[in-house]
Amino acid sequence: MLTYILRRLGATILVLLVASFIVYTLTSIGTDPLADLKQSNASNRQELIDNRIEKLSLDVPPVLRYFTWLGGASRCLILQCDLGIAFSRSDQPVINAVSTAASSTIQLVTAATIIAIIAGLTIGILTALRQYSGFDYTVTFMTFIVYSLPIFWIAVLLKEFGAIRFNAFLSDPQISVWAMLLAGLVAGIIFMSVLGGSWRTRLITFASAFVAVAGLMAFLGLTDWFAKPTVGIIGVILTGVAAAVGVTAISTGLANRRALYASLIVVAIWAALYQPLQYLFFYVPQGWMLLIMYVVAIIVGVVVGLLMGGDGKKEVARTAAIVSFITFFVIVIDRVLLVYSDYLDRIPQSGVIATIGSQTPNLNGDMWFQLLDGFAHLVLPTIALSLVSIAAYTRYARSSLLEVMNQDYVRTARAKGLTERTVIVRHAMRNALIPIATIVAFDIGALIGGAVITETIFAWKGMGALFVTGLERGDVNLVMGFFVVTGVLAVIFNLIADLLYSALDPRIRVS
């Protein structure tokens, strides 16, 4: 494998060299870095022009300038990058501008990518298992609509309904009876369609979902939850138990009682630690503390799984670790919501859900305030990026799984008497993920390269905005800084996709 990776990296370096030369040359020829100074009315205009020409070596032909830039870029191999200066950013080093923009974009696309992958694959699997049902037709129709909508239109709709009107609702949260009944009706139809079965089973599912969701909406309205949101220990326990049942059903099947019991034990551990954690969160509100606790959550799940696993220690430990992570994540959400009221008092009167920027300027507060503020600014652009990706992943997952389900080895697995969950999860889905792995890998690299339209609409200063600024101002160094990041990421994720092939299909060898 090492030989294969080194060979691929060697070939990729040649591709990056040729591509960077073309991009640098075309950008240098097609833009004028002196345009803003030529239109200036300053008395020392010529002096400023001469200074920029000298600083950027504009009197040197673009081809020769490229090799000067390449010399500085090659120092990245020894972790001493020199990508020049960005005159459009007050002569800021390009490496600093790219680092700031990349961190902002990664913050934006991480949640969007995770949500899109999980939701898209889940919906795609469900539609494949309910092929030609009403649920399948409805999801197919909706995914085509979402996929065809331009991203700027989705962003505008989200600003109107997800921010302006929702903020108006939060200012005076009153849930009407009709809203409760409508929410229950929609939930009932969705769950009935997803679970399927006989008409008797579907009616029971519909009634259960209708009562549960309508009752939940009534409870939230009566307790004024939207004005003072919280999870509490009861919410943590309920969420943890639901996660234990759901993750166990997918990972090992509910017939594996050891996995279910291990997951429930993990939930009980976090419920017992709920109150002591509140003191820890209050006295040590630091990011490194949260990272350590997330690692501890995974370790707790693994240890409990190994102790309870019996012959299937690996599967039980994996299940318990996932449930432990989810339960602790809910505890963190509960702690963030405790500062909700104080947060409202410190932000402008525009509402909780922000429509522009990545943070509230001059917001003073500890880590919990920053987390809540980050979520308030992330929610709309994250949904905008996720929706289109979810629609795409849904279609890919559905078609890929349907193709695999008709293979001989799937019929053989069923003939051996394996449960449907085992056939789907362990046999069919693993092979169905092979073509999807390529799409996901390239999408992640493309998203980190910057979502130009989304970042522009939501005034998010990320890689997309950096690239647009470089092109508009003729700042070649800034454009090349963008190219270095996106080009390297494209190479890395392309290599990861190839390595995933061998992990998903043992018949594929990396050689």
UniProtKB/TrEMBL annotation:
Coiled coil: none annotated. The keyword Cell membrane applies. InterPro entries: MetI-like, MetI-like_sf. Keywords: Cell membrane, Membrane, Transmembrane, Transmembrane helix, Transport. The chain crosses the membrane at residues 9-27, 106-128, 135-155, 175-196, 203-227, 233-252, 259-282, 288-308, 320-340, 374-393, 432-458, 478-501. It is a multi-pass membrane protein. Residues 102-501 form the ABC transmembrane type-1 domain. It is found in: Cell membrane. PANTHER family: DIPEPTIDE TRANSPORT SYSTEM PERMEASE PROTEIN DPPB-RELATED. Belongs to the binding-protein-dependent transport system permease family. This is ABC transporter, permease protein. It comes from uncultured Microbacterium sp. The lineage of its organism: Bacteria, Bacillati, Actinomycetota, Actinomycetes, Micrococcales.
